[in-house]
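Q: What would this chain look like folded?
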Amino acid sequence: MTIVTKARPRDPLTPSELTRRRGMRRMKSVATGFLLAAAVVYLTMKILQNHGVTGWTGYVQAAAEAGMVGGLADWFAVTALFKHPLGLPIPHTAIIPKRKDQFGEGLGEFVGENFLSEEVIRGRLSALGISRRTGQWLSQPENAARVTKELATAVRGVLTVLRDEDIQKILGEAVTTRLAKADVATPLGGLLQRLTESGSHQLVDILAARAHDWLEEHPEAIENAVSNEAPLWSPRFLDDAVARRLQRELVKLAGSVRDDQHHPVRGALDRFLADYAEELKSDPETRGRVDKLKADLLQHPELQGLVASGWTALRSAVIDAAEDPGSDLQTRARQGLQSLGHRLETDTAMQEKADGWVREVAVHLVTTYRQEITSLITDTVAAWDGPATSRKIELQVGRDLQFIRINGTVVGALAGLLIYTITQLTL
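A: My prediction, written as structure tokens:
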């Protein structure tokens, strides 16, 4: 029973490989032509000698014979790299198809040791001047505009994809967790102390003005307070008269405090605020009340609503700005990128800092992932089959290897001529 096996179809050649194959075939024809020319000369000299022509024919015959030997030897050597010469399974031939995996490993090690070493990366990046070139590129208005446009597109895409519910939840939890751990009383006491010590009385001014306006706009509050506290036997008209008088006096007092910077009430309020500021920083009871108030505020549903509305407003504003090339956000981004470019182009200290950062990042990536990078070469070569590997390499270097055959024919002929000449002269 005869088993017929189909040969594995070859992968189609790329246009560049087709060009290399044509060049290689031309050089093969030239090298073979040199070998055939040596054979023709050799046979011609033999014929001439058989017809009685001697002397110079011996020199030419020796050169042609040695040329044939040299050409054949180099043809064998070149062919043995890629396949079995004449299809004969001669030992140590078809070297590349048989040892492609070792070649791949060696190539990977060579690249890792000579191209991906820390010294090579540092030296190459130092010579490139990446930050200066980046600065020159960014300082051009059209380039800064291009980068801004791409960043705006990326930001718009990210914000469009993100779910508002997820971001609001994350922000809400972040705000709640951060504020729950934060010491509010101490910074609040420090702020209140600075306000009282500055002598600007801004807080007292706000309190006095607000108290005056509120008392003037809400007389019914005073009337209700007086009516609720008056005895049952007190007539209504008397309660109203007392409430109106009390309201006028309170409005007058608040107005005086508001307008008179040296009013005694102002001094009392300043002293109260100063004492309270000190209590916020040092009194455990006061600090405890502030922490309790903070905890109550954090548990209030309106805080999450405030975070949600803040995120929604911020998201809409950023998306609108990212869609409008003339927006203030994009204008400032372009100006900022150009300014950064000018600094990178001219500031030597900044260049050294940026280049150092780039070098360290590149060295870290290379040293961390060198094995993965070199294994890409090894695995790729290992995935090729033997004939395909041989064919690819031959297409790359085969044209140049034909010069070895030509040189072998020419050098062999010259060596044969020299040996024959020396032999004739010495014997």
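Confidence is low (pLDDT under 50) at residues 1-8.
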